[in-house]
Structure formats: C-alpha cells, structure tokens
C-alpha cells in the first residue's frame, strides 16, 4: 500500500511537467511559423504586391471602361416648294417631314395667289411647335419658278443660302415639292444616315446623254421667269449651240440629297465652276436635271 501511494505521488508531477513542456513546444512552433512567414514576405515582397495588384486589376475589370462615344446624329435641311393650289399639300408634306432637329424652308412661288401665301405664313406663325423650336422659315418674297428653266435652280440655291445663313448645324440638304410624301419617318432617316460619311451626295447622274444631247443641251432656250412676273413656258432661240468642251455634261433627277460642304461650294463658289455652269445652264432645257450633276462631276 505504501509503495502504490508513492508511485501515484511520482506520476502526478511527471504528468504536469509533460503538459507544461507540450504547451511550451507548441507555442514555440507557432511563434516560429509566424516569424518565418514574416521573414519570407520581407525577403520576397513581390508576391504580396502581386496579390494586391491582382485584386486591383480584377476590381478594374469588374468596373469596366465606358464605351467610346458614337457619331453625332445627322440633321437635315429641307426645301419644300409649291405653286398655285399647293397650300394644303405643302402643309401636309411639311408635317410629315417635321422633326425638331431639322431645318425647313417652305416656298410658294409667284403663281400662287397672295391669299395662299398669306395663309401659309399665318399657319406657320400660329403653330405652337414651329414657334417654340423656330426651325421653319417661309420665303416671304416669292420667286417665279419655271420647272424646265433655270429659275428652279435659282430658287433652290436661294433656299440653300437662307439655310446656311440661319443655321449651319445640318448635314444634308433635300429639295422636295409639295406633291412629295415621305415613305419613312425622320427617325428612320436619321438612323440610316447616322453611319454615313457626311461628305456623300446622293445624286442620280449619268454622262450618257442619249437623246438629251440633241433635245436639251444643244437648243438655246429663254426662261420668261427671269424677267416676267407671270408664269409662261420657256421658248426656243436660235441658233443652236454645240456641246461644251470645257466641261463634261451630266444629267439625272432634279431631286437630290446634297451634303452641306457641297452646298457651301455651290453657294459661296470659292471656285468659279458653280458660277460658270449656272450661266451655261441659264439657256439649257430642264436645267434642274443637270446643274448639280455637272457641278459635282466636274470638280477637280
């Protein structure tokens, strides 16, 4: 009995000392691990920096960069012209074409009675949207216009000059008659033209004159609309003339879509070509179907 009690007394201190040693050993291991990690990071800081950079780059990727701005939306400048009895048709066409971003010039020629021109001016002045936006202008001093003569070209150039003076913030000029009606909305037109080069002109043209060489280019005509206040048809003069050699003639449709730089070239004429051709086409049958085509195709 005495020996067993003695053994128990010896075991207790051994167990306690073993626990203390184990605790000290584990603590020293943990401290050594922390110290070694600290020393490793201090020797090779690139790994921690790389980790921070990776996190920063990922945050950048998640945020993303804004897309580049797209091209500005195009604007159109319109001439809508009419004659006697065209008031209602012109008004309908104007409303179908209207968009607050565009510019509009309307014209009723001298053949239209004063009552119609005054009624058109009154409608524009009293229109709430037109007054608010201020982008519809009527040529109050009406021109005499003969379709087959140069007066139609002069009227178109007049409208171009008015549009350039009022506001140069447009991209294409479109001439229409009161009888025209759009097949697409202005929003669709803006979308279609938004990706196009703003220097493009849309002009039907050909140098193959065919019968027009003999019937239109060679005869000399006089347009009474140049000097008369009443409308009458063109008449022929003699003698006939030969085809020009200083430039090449082109023909096409009188209805075009012209870029603003080309309109400026025709109106301001820093080159003499537009003026020279305008004088030539003064005596040309159906000059609206050839003037702009010949100008744009002879620019060097």
């Amino acid at each position: 009995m005495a020996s067993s009690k003695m053994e128990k007394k010896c075991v207790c201190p051994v167990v306690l000392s073993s626990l203390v040693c184990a605790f000290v050993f584990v603590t020293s291991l943990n401290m050594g691990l922390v110290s070694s990690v600290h020393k490793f990071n201090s020797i090779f800081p690139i790994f921690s920096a790389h980790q921070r950079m990776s996190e920063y780059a990922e945050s950048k990727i998640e945020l993303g960069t804004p897309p580049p701005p797209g091209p500005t939306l195009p604007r159109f400048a319109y001439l809508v012209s009419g004659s006697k009895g065209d008031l209602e048709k012109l008004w309908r066409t104007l409303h179908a074409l209207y968009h607050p971003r565009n510019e509009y010039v309307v014209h009723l020629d001298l053949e239209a009675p004063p009552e119609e021109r005054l009624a058109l001016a009154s409608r524009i002045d009293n229109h709430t949207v037109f007054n608010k936006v201020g982008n519809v202008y009527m040529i109050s001093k009406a021109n005499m216009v003969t379709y087959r003569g140069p007066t139609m070209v002069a009227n178109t150039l007049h409208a171009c000059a008015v549009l350039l003076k009022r506001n140069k913030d447009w991209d294409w000029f479109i001439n229409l008659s009161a009888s025209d009606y759009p097949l697409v909305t202005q929003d669709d037109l803006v979308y279609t033209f938004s990706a196009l080069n703003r220097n493009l002109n849309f002009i039907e043209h050909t140098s193959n004159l065919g019968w027009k060489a003999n019937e239109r280019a060679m005869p000399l005509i006089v347009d009474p609309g140049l000097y008369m206040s009443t409308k009458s048809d063109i008449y022929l003069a003699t003698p006939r003339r030969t085809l020009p050699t200083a430039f090449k003639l082109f023909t096409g449709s009188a209805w075009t879509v012209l870029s603003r730089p080309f309109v400026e070239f025709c109106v301001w004429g820093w080159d003499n070509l537009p003026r020279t051709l305008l004088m030539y086409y003064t005596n040309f049958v159906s000059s609206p179907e050839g003037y702009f085509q010949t100008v744009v195709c002879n620019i060097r």
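Residues 76-297 form a domain with the Spore Coat Polysaccharide Biosynthesis Protein SpsA; Chain A fold (CATH 3.90.550). The chain has a mean pLDDT of 85.
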